[in-house]
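User: DNA-binding transcriptional regulator, ArsR family. Structure?
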Amino acid sequence: MDKIKTIHIITEQTRFKILQLLSEHHYCVRAISKKLNISESAVSQHMSILKKHNVVYGEKIGYQMHYKVNSQLLINLISDSLEYIKQFNIDIKIPVDCSCEFSDECIRNNISNKGDKQNE
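Assistant: Predicted structure:
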């Protein structure tokens, strides 16, 4: 499977929203359709693409097919992508988000402090 193609498939806006829903709970096409306010046929077309690339899989519950995310595939995809990026010696730093009531000020202060240090 082509990893770049899979990344392209999962980052399409509607499919990404579907994956967000399915990461929280398994749903059938009808439920996904109602939650995203799009037609069942549109959901079915997106699900067909996601299934074709093994991003999701179905499990029949009663009369409905419920879909779940193939989380191992996504974990492997992200892990492989990070390994690939490491070869470029890019320093990836995840910013620490301030969750206090002054978060805007904290973020602005951190940015201006970095700028001050660069000017020294």
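The radius of gyration is 20 Å. The longest helix spans residues 103-119.
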